[in-house]
Write the structure tokens for this entry.
Amino acid sequence: MPQTVHPYRDITIRFPGQVIVGKKSLLKLTDEVVGQGYKSALIVTISPLLDKLEPLLVQLKEAGVTVHVDTSIVREPSFKDFEDLLTSVKNTRADVIIGIGGGSVLDIAKLIAAQIDNDQSLADITGIGLLKNRNKKLICVPTTAGTGSEASPNAILIDDADNQKKGIISRYLVPDGVIIDPELMISLPPEVTAATGLDALTHCLEAYTNLYAHPFIDMYALEGIRLIAGNLVKAVNDGSDEDARTQLAIGSLMGGFCLGPVNTAGVHALSYPLGSMYHIAHGLSNALLLPFVMEYNIPAAPERYAAVARALGCDSSITDSETAYTGVEKIRELISQCGIPARLKEIDIDKNTIPQMAADAMKITRLLKNNPRPITIDDAVNIYEAAY
């Protein structure tokens, strides 16, 4: 049965206050900080980036800004990781929080900016729309393309109590400013470039084929698909290709625009257990499942998936359904050209855990409700088995 979309429902879209895109644009960060009169900055980042950040750190210090740098986030963060970091930075008196890194770093920076002076607990704000405010200036600088966290109202953490990924979704988590500097992505390894790029592609694809798709978001979703599909393999094969890196980053940003008002669906819901149970990187989890969920969904939304196929660069076939399936093959081709695993068995997933993964995926109702075709626990088992 074809999907019923609701394209004219009310929609609220919150964009970052400012987006700067360009080579060496990281060095414009000092002007943003000093221009607002801020005296103390907390930078959340990762150790491998410190050499690249040295010119910025020197610039900020010369401008009289006290800088605190934290590099404690080294994996997909848990509630405890966040609480430990929050405790350690509570007394920095930072008035601007800057996240420079991949999605996990940006998610943590967003939450630190909200929680550093907030009396709500993490449990109080977990869910949709529960965070009451954010007082600190927040600037995000993505170094992968990527999660789209720099533009989204989402932050994802693993709950230590049940090992499940939980979302904190709030308009206050959309950053005030975003800086996209392709030079920060040049040294990203090919496999990380591939996995994060396919994650960004999945954001756009799932937004466009979503039950709650919306014309205002469709334009970002389709252009994001086009930009990522046209540049991902170039960036994987030649990490120093700044044009490809820039186009990928813009596509990822567009995917981030999709995440608030429309969000993702079945691919992400089924990918979460791979992350929480096996600690598989989020982008790779999505890539492994994307073609199989697409095949499952196409009967419910052939027109939408045909449009996806055309945005991916495929020609139209006689019917929308035929065109849609060429899009699935294009995704498989991209995965192959990127040299990343295409099957769950290639990354040592135990087939006996599929029922547990399916049960865990069923808990992600905030995403499953968006999927164009209902997914039952038996359907989830079948998709995992097909992907195995």
Summary: Strands lie at 18-21, 40-44, 66-70, 96-101, 127-128, 137-142, 154-159, 164-169, 177-180.
